[in-house]
Amino acid sequence: MFTTRHQYVERDSCIVCTERLYADKAVRFLYSSARENAPALFRVLTSSRASRLLGFLNYGIPFKRMVFGRKRFLQTLNIDTKECLDNPGSLDTVKKIFERKIRYWEYRPMPDDPGAIVSPSDSRVVVGSFCDTSSLFIKGKFFDYEELLGRNKKEWLNAFLQGNFAVFRLTPEKYHYNHTPVAGKILDFYEIDGEYHACNPGAVVTVITPYSKNKRVVTVIDTDVPGGTKAGLVVMIEVVALMIGKIVQRYSEERYDSPQRIYPGMFLQKGFPKSLYRPGSSTNVLIFQKNRVRFAEDLIRNMFRQGIESRFSRGFGMPLAETDIKARSFLAHARDNT
After folding, report:
1. Residue 62 forms beta bridges with which residues?
2. Are 251 and 268 spatial neighbours (Cβ–Cβ below 8 Å)?
3. d(Cα 83, Cα 252) in Å, to the nearest integer?
4. pTM above threshold 0.70
5. What are phi and psi of 137, to 5 degrees?
6. Were 328 and a residue from 21, 105, 110, 244 both cysteine, which residue would form a disulfide, CB within 3.0 to 4.6 Å?
7. Sequence-ordered alpha helix ranges (H) in 108-152
């Protein structure tokens, strides 16, 4: 599973790119050798304590103590410092680079259409359906539906039966703030404890349904309210991963200023910063009710594009290529059934 290159489609240019998988050899060891031959060690390494330690060793050390400098690091990961809100010179650790703020109001434009649903993050996305009669039907490997939402959450499990979903995989060099994909009122907000599996594509298809095994934060949003996106109920799930120790909720309607806590009854505007992942890579999952959204055609077309080497394609036994997408860019359009 790990021998295949992993490629994706760059959305704006439609160019097929090969991903430089971060710490791929270490992940390969962890999810092949350690998982098969030393299950106790595997459980320790995917625990909360180990994840925090690995995060510090990889991201907390100042550049002046490293063999490579900040400039080389930024160039290697192709991070555009022109987007940064703060002085790039102040980003003196890998952690600060991954937690950087950007001038998203300039560099991440959002569609004016009130019915547009937007990407929550700079990430690589695939879309799918829980309905086995849909052309987007994907059997569960990313996550177990009931486990993902919480098996005791019967109200939400029933509400999203045969609905659609989008999976957004953040890679380590990405801007790590998540933005609200829709406008609406929060109906529920809760955390589910779990493990810290890697989001490397090889690890995802090796460990069945890892996203529903990892620690995660669930936000249920009603968009069929005054000022809402009119896309029905929408679930936003923020999933931790290896070396991601925490998801910090920082909703703000004035750039990054005066961040607020998230709570049921709160109204969220679309496109604003909602939360921050600590450094590493992680995943967002959006779930929509049946027949309430229509995904962007280019995202669907890219998924089934031929000639792309994707670890997801091999793991799922079907063409399944990701599209590199920007935060606040067009993901889908609401189908207003109110």
Report:
1. 93
2. yes
3. 19
4. yes
5. -65, 125
6. 110
7. 145-149
